[in-house]
Every structure is written in C-alpha cells, then in structure tokens.
Specification:
InterPro entries: METTL16/RlmF, rRNA_lsu_MeTfrase_F, SAM-dependent_MTases_sf
Helix content: 25-40%
Largest sheet: 7 strands, mixed
Structural class: alpha/beta
Keywords: Cytoplasm, Methyltransferase, rRNA processing, S-adenosyl-L-methionine, Transferase
CATH architecture of one domain: 3-Layer(aba) Sandwich
GO molecular function, one term: 23S rRNA (adenine(1618)-N(6))-methyltransferase activity
Order of helices and strands: HEEHHEHEHEEHHHEHEE
Number of helices: 9
Number of strands: 9
Organism: Horticoccus luteus
Shape: globular
Pfam family, one: Methyltransf_10
C-alpha cells in the first residue's frame, strides 16, 4: 500500500462499489501514467493533489484514472469539450446497477445482454467506458454534435476491449431524444442522461466563477476557464435543466416500452417537485429519487418507468 502522503482525502458519499471512494492514490496513478507527474503538487494539508482549476491538469488526471482503474489505455478529447469528474460519473452507473438489481432478485445484471442507452454520450464517452469495464453492459450512445461523436468513436477504436460493446449514433434533430436514433422494436434495460444544467451562456459562466471561487477562495480570472470544459450544448439550453428534463419525460411517455427504466441526473433539488408532478401527469408506473453525493456536492438521479 502506498504511503498516506500519496493518497488524497476520501470522498464521502460515494457508492460503496465506486473505485474512487477512498480518494486518489497518486503514487499508483503516477506509476501507471507518468505523464500526470507535472500536475501533481502538495495540498495545504500535505497530501498529493492537482489544481482542479487547471483544465489541462483535470484532463491528465482523468486519463490516469481511466488507464489505472479501468484499463482504458487511450483517452483523448478535443480542447474545450466536457471533461467529466470520473468518480461522480461512476456513481451514477453504480446506482443504476442497484436499480436494475431490484428487478433481478437483488442481483446486479451483468454482461452484454444488458443494453443501455446513453443520451448525449459526449466527446468523452465516459458512461460507456465505465459501464463496459465495471459491468460488461452493451451501450448505445447518441450525440447531436458530429465532432463530439467523432471523438467518442476515436476513443472506442483506440481501445480494442471496447470493440463491439459500444455503438455510437448521430442524433440529427435537436428537438428529439429518442426518435431518429432508435430502431422500431429496439429496447433497452435503462437510459442515462446528464442534461445541460444552465439556462444560458451567462449562467454557465457564473457557475464557473463560483466554482473557481470555491477552489481558490477568490475568482482570479477575468475570463474564467472551465476546469471541466464544456461546449455550449453540453452546459446550457433554453429553459435549462427543468425544460430539458420536461422534454425527456414527455418523449419517454411517447416511447413507454423503449426502456425498462428511464433515468436522468438532477442537479438542483428545487426542480424535483415539478418533475414529480409531470411524472404523475404522464402516468409513470414507478418513479424514484436516488440521492448521490461526492464530497460537499449533493446531487440525485430520478428514475421512472411505465411498465
């Protein structure tokens, strides 16, 4: 076991199966991915860390985590695209696995017969990468941005273990989530969605400034860099998270047999009452709110089904 000085503080609230629940073991990460070394520095309490306000450092950490923990030897994303925090994304999948287990005598279904629909797979392809490695599921990822889809395809092509486990499809209509990317009669065990949280570019920029203030104690950039990146369609949409999730629910009701479970992340607890009312209006047979946490950050996923 590495010394305590190489291990970052534990991340309270992460799922028990999350590989990152004990924090980042930087000594092990550096052995696997020496390219991370220039970004590692002592934290105020003496443990190893990186500057999470530096987008290049965040990308390097993600690359090391994916290589060390999941065997993803090649992972690159275009500049400016969303670089997701791996522990939080893994948590979503572990909670979804528990949800699926409730329909299988509390045994998590594994293997390629479990088909997962990832709405907005992104340039990073993060959910399919983690889901294939942790559970062996088969993923269909949809994406409206051709450049992001091309990036995801490069990641899959560069890692032979992913071949045949991940399908990537272009969604040509910005108004549709399911129509145009799923075939008649096609079904999935579950769908995933990480919706745009903000209602405008200005709101997204303000969110970044708040994050930097939290990281540094003050917002030191006049034009703040997005430490986790993100293109406009990844960060905001008209009406923000409430409008996007409303569209998702209404369109799921038009395709009630497509997925055993429909799910989405919900960043803001104040959006839950409206979501609950809409799910009742569309006559969802079952709806659940599953709390999630990573350190001080609180989130939740909402799951519903019609059968």
């Amino acid at each position: 076991m590495s010394s305590s000085s190489s291990l970052s503080s534990a991340k309270p609230g992460l799922h028990p199966r999350n590989r990152h629940a004990a924090g980042y073991d930087f000594a092990a990460l550096l052995r696997t991915c020496p390219d991370l070394a220039p970004f590692v520095r002592p934290s105020p309490v003496g443990t190893a860390t990186i500057d999470f306000a530096d987008p290049t450092a965040v990308v390097a950490l993600n690359r090391a985590l994916l290589r060390h923990h999941y065997g993803i030897a090649h992972w690159e994303i275009p500049p400016g695209y969303l670089c997701p925090p791996v522990p939080g994304r893994a948590d979503y999948l572990h909670h979804v696995a528990d949800l699926l287990a409730t329909d299988h005598a509390n045994a998590i279904p594994r293997g390629s017969s479990v088909r997962v629909l990832d709405l907005g797979v992104g340039a990073n392809c993060i959910y399919p990468l983690l889901g294939v490695c942790d559970y062996g599921w088969h993923f269909v990822g949809t994406e409206i941005d051709p450049a992001a889809l091309a990036s995801a395809r490069r990641i899959v092509a560069a890692n032979p273990a992913l071949h045949g486990a991940i399908e990537l499809r272009l969604q040509r209509s910005s108004a549709q989530l399911f129509a145009g990317v799923v075939a008649p009669g096609e079904t999935f065990a579950v769908s995933l969605c990480n919706p745009p949280f903000h209602a405008s570019a200005a709101e997204a920029a303000a969110g970044t400034t708040r994050k930097l203030r939290h990281l540094h104690g003050t917002a030191r950039r006049t034009a703040p860099a997005l430490n986790f990146g993100g293109r406009p369609h990844e960060l905001w949409c008209d009406g923000g998270e409430p409008a996007f999730i409303r569209r998702l629910i209404l369109q799921s009701a038009a395709h009630p047999h497509l997925c055993g479970w429909f799910t989405t992340l919900v960043s803001r607890a104040e959006n839950l009452p409206a979501i609950a009312r809409l799910l009742a209006d569309v006559k969802a047979a079952d709806a659940r709110v599953i709390p999630m946490a990573q350190g001080q950050k609180k989130s939740r996923l909402v799951a519903w089904r019609f059968r």
